[in-house]
Amino acid sequence: MKKYNNLKKVLPLEGYREDMKNTALTETHKALGAKIVPFAGYNMPVQYEGINIEHETVRQAVGVFDVSHMGEFLIDGEHALELIQKVSSNDASKLTVGKAQYSCLPNNDGGIVDDLIIYKIKEEQYLLVVNASNIEKDWNWIESKNDVGANMRDLSETYSLLAIQGPKAIEAMQSITSHDLSAIKFYNFVVGDFAGIEHVIISATGYTGSGGFEIYCKNSEVKQIWDKVLEAGADFGIKPIGLAARDTLRLEMGYCLYGNDIDDTTSPIEAGLGWITKFTKDFTNSEALKAEKEHGPKRKLIAFELDDRGIPRHGYDIVDGNGKTIGVVTSGTMSPSLGKGIGLGYVPTIFSDVNSKINIQIRKNAVPATVVKLPFYK
What is residue 24's DSSP assignment? Predict the structure, then answer.
């Protein structure tokens, strides 16, 4: 899930901008030598040492990301679940306190307003975590559906979010909490002490595929937590990680990025998100999506690896053996872990089977590629 529309557009931009919002840690990132770029209305660290070394750090050890630009909505009261069930594709009635769920907000036209994570904090209280670029859009959308009287609060401006990711995250962070981190299962969370701060959400979630946690705290608390995380992780090789490596890490897993692989025009069925689309309940546009699932979508989001050298990029054409355009690349990069070009894109269903041969139009060359099963990185 999560959250910065097409880094390729972002990377060449100038650095820090006065007209953008800052996170509580922007000055800290500058002091660490981060390259700062405007992203989703915020000045954000895109890289520190470099994409490849940061990527490798998360795959092999542990890294920490500031992703405080993400949005957080608190929905509570006796009608909270009713509202969430109306607007989300997954079945939130299955959530128990301490569990989280990946979901999406379908629109009325077969597309997706946003993807999000829903946390059940306590009975009749839920936290919705949404993409930074969609905070206002999502709030207005959910509010427009709230005819049931659920209480809604936008906490986005007051809360910070750190992602501590990598195979050494548990052992590196265990010294700064009284909770047994190894006992928190994937997509579960606890509310407790972390880095000397009480009532922190410690969530076994992430956008990298290498394990770890996401930490939700108040803006006033995040500097202390950031400093203690770097201190506790020092012996384990921890480094701060920027948004560019976040993008290569999530792409190696085939995780969708809103604004690239999913948007207002892509259905969850086409995007391979049928597993978070539950027709055991009614929700926005559920009848049409159910019919699409039964008939089969006309196009599908596929994963591909280049057979020859090259780097696929967002917006490149996908062509058949005759050079005819059949689709478009939605995300692409040179995979640091695999050392080859990888990407996601939409093609007609006939071309979507694993091992199908397609071509990616990279400038004047149609570079051969093979459709593969996700994740790229195993």
Answer: T
Beta bridge partner(s), residue 318: 327, 360
Rounded distance, CA 4 to CA 13, Å?
A: 14
**Quick one: angle between helices 243-253 and 51-60, nearest 10?**
60
* Domain-wise residue ranges, the chain: 7-68+157-253, 71-154, 298-372
Homologous superfamily of 7-68+157-253: Probable tRNA modification gtpase trme; domain 1 (3.30.1360.120)
pTM comes to 0.94
Cβ contact 119:100 at 8 Å: yes
DSSP 260-276: TTB-TT--TTTTT-GGG
CATH number of 71-154: 3.30.70.1400
26-51 pLDDT, tens digit per residue, is 999 999 999 999 999 999 999 999 99
Phi, psi of 48 (to 5 degrees): -115, -85
For domain 298-372, is the CATH number 2.40.30.110? yes
DSSP states along 312-334: --TTPEEE-TTS-EEEEEEEEEE
